[in-house]
Amino acid sequence: MANPQAEDGHVDIANEIVEALAVTYLSSYESQVLWAIFRKTYGWHKKEDWITGSQLVEMTGIAKGHISRTLKKLIDRNMVNKNGKKLSFQKDYDKWIKLPKRVTNIKLLKQDIKLPKRVTEVTQIGQEVTQIGKHKRNYTKETSSKEIIQKKSDVFIKVWRKFKVMRKKIKKPMTEYAEELMIKELNKLTNNEEEQINILNKSIMNDWQGVFPLKGGINGQFTGTNGSSKKPGEDKYKHLEETY
């Protein structure tokens, strides 16, 4: 159990300085480095001392790179004086450069931000990033191209796969995003699945990279590639399977 005693050594700091520090924003690194300087100076009844970066690393546990940056910030804010290799605390708090109020609220270092469990970062637009790397957002999930195609008929799926093969053959393979755009383009041309199959077949036959509207249309019946007409009730996709 810790049992510190003042007679074993103590740091004499004026109450006025303590009160000034109480209303001055310091990052955790700045606070740690400042207290280390107090210990190495006032703790030995000195106004200044030769304090190395290695000593500060050992006392604070902060990485040396962070020590250098933090020390520079304290010097820039006139809270620490540097005389050659010696450091001292600037006790004239009227000379301290205080950060603007907006900076103390926004420019917090990561180690100073108290985050909920499983949250490792808060982005500028307020999204929480969890430890597993997923953002918590309030949005409606868009249906992917795979989900749309899975709801289609077996014939459509078969022709769609052949269309993708053709795109690879002409050295224009589609990314997942490109597939989504192609599905949207098909839906713009027609919502009729039979016509969509015909459009894809036309592009496959001509090695076309995109999809284009058909001349004419179904008009109540479909005319296959062999010129035969399909009557209502018959399998309207059978002729497509025979052709492809």
Structural class: mainly alpha
CA(first)-CA(last) distance? 83 Å
Count structural domains: 2
What is the 3D form? rod-shaped
CATH fold assignment of the largest domain: Arc Repressor Mutant, subunit A
Based on DSSP secondary structure assignment, what is the total number of beta strands? Answer: 6
Name the helicity range: 40-55%
Radius of gyration: 36 Å
Question: Major sheet, described briefly?
Answer: 3 strands, antiparallel
Which CATH architecture of the largest domain is right?
A: Orthogonal Bundle
What is the average per-residue confidence, as pLDDT, rounded to a whole number? Answer: 78
Number of helices: 10
Order of helices and strands: HHEHHEEHEEEHHHHH
Q: CATH superfamily assignment of the largest domain? A: Winged helix-like DNA-binding domain superfamily/Winged helix DNA-binding domain
- The first-level CATH class of the largest domain is given as Mainly Alpha
Give unreliable regions as ranges: 104-108, 124-132, 134-140, 218-234, 240-244
Q: Strands of the largest sheet, in order across it?
A: 1-3-2
Q: What percent of residues are in strands?
A: 5-15%
